[in-house]
Amino acid sequence: MWTVCVLVAACFSLAATPSAAAAPAPITKPPMGWNSWNSFAGAIDHTVIEQQADALVSSGMKDAGYEYVNIDDGW
Question: Which of 11, 27, 42, 55 could lock 74 by a disulfide, CB 3.0 to 4.6 Å apart?
Answer without folding.
Answer: 42
